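Tokens for chain A. Residues wanted.
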């Protein structure tokens, strides 16, 4: 345990390929931040959350990943206005005996998306988007797209009032939605041969494909789009940005 017992960590399930532990461990060394450690708390059921908080002395902040970004909210004392509007929490601040939930995914996604769109010198209102997937990460994506005035359509395997299915995306429809954001785990290591079912033949050099997956760096989803001339970005810039925002939240 660190000298002064400041423990940070990540809750979620599974956590076998987490980016966060390596990132923060290297950050503590690189920036000479003493007395801190970052641990992985594999938690299949969110019902185990109160036990973790009570049993780990020195716990000073947590990140939250799938599948707990929504359900963890009911265990917190406070939720930031932005996280409440998004409907998902991925950062928990421990302060004065209280637990407060924040969302740093939105910050990370917005800054990195602006960088991607700058390649085409685009404003939000110039483009329409597909959001692939309806999990916790997609809620932060939706929040940012609304903020930037980007018209969006959710896509999922099952049709509801809020989304269409992959089979409904025609080449013409994909042609008119130039920003495509993958919020599903498809393509993530070790299942690198999986990818969203889209008519990739309709992709052009006017498209922008963003994959929240970061391992591998180029998923099949991104490779197929890049082969057609699309600008592409993986989830690593977003991860770096949201991690730094987490550190800022934990220390404010």
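Reply:
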């Amino acid at each position: 345990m660190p000298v002064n017992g400041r423990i940070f960590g990540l809750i979620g399930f599974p956590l076998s390929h987490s980016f966060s532990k390596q990132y923060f461990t290297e950050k503590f060394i690189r920036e000479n931040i003493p007395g801190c450690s970052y641990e992985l708390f594999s938690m299949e059921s969110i019902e185990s959350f109160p036990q973790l908080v009570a049993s780990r002395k020195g716990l000073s902040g947590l990140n939250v990943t799938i599948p707990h970004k929504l359900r963890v909210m009911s265990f917190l004392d406070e939720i930031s206005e932005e996280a409440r509007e998004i409907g998902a929490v991925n950062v928990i601040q421990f302060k004065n005996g209280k637990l407060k939930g924040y969302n740093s995914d939105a910050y990370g996604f917005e800054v990195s998306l602006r960088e991607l769109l700058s390649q085409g010198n685009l404003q939000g209102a110039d483009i329409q988007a597909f959001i692939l997937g309806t999990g916790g990460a997609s809620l932060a994506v939706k929040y940012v797209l609304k903020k930037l005035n980007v018209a969006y359509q959710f896509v999922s395997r099952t049709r509801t009032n809020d989304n269409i299915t992959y089979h409904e995306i025609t080449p013409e429809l994909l042609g008119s939605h130039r920003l495509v954001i993958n919020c599903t785990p498809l393509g993530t290591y070790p299942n690198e041969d999986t990818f969203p079912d889209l008519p990739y033949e309709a992709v052009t050099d006017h498209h922008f494909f963003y994959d929240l997956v970061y391992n591998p760096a180029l998923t099949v989803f991104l490779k197929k789009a890049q082969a057609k001339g699309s600008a592409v970005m993986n989830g690593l810039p977003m991860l770096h940005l949201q991690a730094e925002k987490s550190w800022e939240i934990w220390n404010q």
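The chain has a mean pLDDT of 94. Residues 236-250 form the longest helix (15 residues).
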